[in-house]
Amino acid sequence: MLAQTPAINPPKSAAEAPAAAAASKRRTAARRNRAAVWFLAPACAMTLIYVLYPIAYTIYLSFFNWDGMTRPQFVGLANYVELLHAPTFYTALRNNLAWLLAFLLAPPMGLAIALYLNQKVRGMRVVKALFFAPFVLSGVVVGLIFSWFYDPSFGLLSLLLGHGIPVLGDARYVTFGIIFAALWPQTAYCMILFLTGLTAINNDQIEAARMEGAKGWTMLRHVILPQLRPTTFMAFVVSIIGALRSFDLISVMSSGGPYESSTVLAYYAYDQAIKYYRQGYSAAIAVTLFAIMLVYIVYQLRRMLRSER
Question: Which family does it belong to (predicted)?
Fold first, then answer.
């Protein structure tokens, strides 16, 4: 008997080969997309549950009168109308503006310290650790340190001046005293951002600028700062957000006093919700603060995108 020869698949035509390759690429792309979706799903779920839902619920709650225990009562825009007629709201808004203007000093000071620390000098690591220390401390610890510093009876400030000044007990000084305390860790944070940015600078451009005779302010303005533009943008955005959501130092150092002279919008919202059980009114304050922050962030993002184009 003759052995049966196995069937041989006919060779694919020239028209079928590109189609098979395209189908294989589509299957590979589909697998990659599914993998990307599975990797992103936990982060998206966390963002939805812990960020987007609280924002939406806070906006919804701002139209109700609710004490946290009884049934909420719909009041429409009454919370916002009351907010616009409350003197404490304008005091908090003015203090937030003072925080905002003062925190604009943090990025330039952080950049100056970062330029000083970005040197290959013996013992510089110890100096970096000393400048980095304020960022590691919590806001409560910073508040306690400066509360002792400002104490008119035994504080270091009274020893330096020769007499005590009740910084935290005087409505004229309390806001600026707390802002000065907050600038300490904020400047350290900006310093860390700029130190990270300085490590990514193109050294070839710096050497070329040195060969052309650039140094000092000219080098900083035309060579270094343009390469630090993303870091500078991040430092200013973080500083502005930190100024608008300032809370912990105020809670530790003054509790919004004396006579609500040092309160800000974030602490005003907390005060109304926790002390007076006005959840809806507190939500209206939080929505107002969020709108102010959102306007600034959108403006800065559009400005950065326009400059990059």
Answer: Belongs to the binding-protein-dependent transport system permease family.
**pTM here?**
0.81
> Residue 64 forms beta bridges with which residues?
74
Rounded CA gap, 184 and 110, in Å? Answer: 10
Return d(Cα 8, Cα 21) in angstroms, integer: 22
CB atoms within 10 A of CB 270: 19
**C-alpha to C-alpha distance for 21 and 18, rounded to whole angstroms:** 5
> In this structure, what token pair is assigned to residue 293?
């922050």
pLDDT tens by residue, the chain, 309 residues: 445 555 555 555 555 667 777 777 888 888 888 888 899 999 999 999 999 999 999 999 999 999 888 899 999 999 999 999 999 999 999 999 999 999 999 999 999 998 888 877 777 778 888 888 888 888 889 999 999 999 988 888 888 888 888 899 989 999 999 999 999 999 999 999 998 888 888 777 777 877 877 777 878 877 888 888 888 888 988 898 888 888 889 999 998 989 889 999 999 999 999 989 999 999 999 999 999 888 887 887 787 777 777
How much of the chain is helix, strand and coil, in % rounded to 5? 70, 0, 25
137 DSSP assignment = S
Cα 233 from Cα 299, distance rounded (Å): 12
